[in-house]
Amino acid sequence: MADESIVRAPSAAPLHDALLPFEVASLDLRGRLIKLGPALDELLAKHAYPTQVSKLLGEAIVLTTLLGSSLKFAGRFILQTQTDGPVSMIVVNFTAPDSLRAYARFDASRLKPGQTSGELLGKGHLAMTIDQGADMSRYQGLVALDGGDFEAAAHEYFLRSEQIPTRVRLAVGEELRGQGGPRHRWRAGGLLLQFLPKSQERARQADLDPGDAPKGTAPHVVGEDDAWVEGQSLMQTVEDVELIDPDLSGERLLFRLFHERGVRVFAEQPVQAKCSCSREAVAAMLARFTPKDRADMVENGKVVVTCEFCSSVYEFTPEEAGAV
Ligand SMILES: [Zn+2]
Q1: Under 8 Å between Cβ of 52 and 20
Q2: Distance of CA 14 from the midpoint of ligand 1 (Å)
Q3: What pTM did the predictor assign?
Q4: Are residues 64 and 155 both part of a single domain?
Q5: How confident is the model at residue 208 (pLDDT cuts 50, 70, 90)?
Q6: Does 8 fall in a domain?
Q7: Which of 122, 215, 269, 324 could bond to 83 as cystine, CB 3.0-4.6 Å?
Q8: Closest to 86 measured CA to CA, from 102, 58, 109, 103
Q9: What's the 309 CA to ligand 1 centre distance in angstroms?
Q10: Do residues 35 and 158 both lie within one domain?
């Protein structure tokens, strides 16, 4: 490629609603940085959930975008939680190449100030599904949620399912500013870093503790590769504010982290808040119901269906809905 030798200073242009893929070749590291602003604000404002639920859903949206954006073809990445905490369910979809939608279910009576993400989720599981369309096989990875947050769950997922050394950072915050009086906005950011050496041997991680080894058995110890140790320690220096700050450019953050090793950035991938629901799709769904179910849906002389993802409301007459 012609531009391979171009070395330039990091751009100060801020990253809004986009992913920035990058590579630190000297350490065999690859990653993606994301910053979300207006798109996240739109996704969360549609629901008007309590603040802590919005923040938790924001974390799930960042994680979904970091993971789903690796889909090479058309397809959908679905993150879904089912847990016993105050927020009992979260669903986030990333539809290639760029569309996000999300919702949460929660019990308002169990929300308390100061609850951590792990406390809001409680115990249960996190499922991550890649759906490449009707003719393609679905792939699903499951990890237990046991009072931990989405970062911890992502690390567990990569250790068990993908066996690629991976670290993830997620941050969500509120911003109050604007001309003519402050306006509330949500901001978020995330960073995913993976160690992908050419030699598999260098990517080895310690085996998971089988739990049933006889007493006194030495655990399987694998020394981590120096390059990966360095990558992880650089990752630990990332502050939440650096991920959230709308004025700190993505390139400057990556330069701050990796300049000593040389970091190469690739083309930005924009993302947007966009639901795939439509009046036609809702009508097709109604047509699959039994006549009795359709008749039961008539209220005040009409059938009203609200999209759980984007809160769009679709109204049908009983005739249109096939409910007479
Ligand atoms: Zn919708």
Answers
A1: no
A2: 29
A3: 0.90
A4: yes
A5: low
A6: no
A7: 122
A8: 109
A9: 5
A10: yes
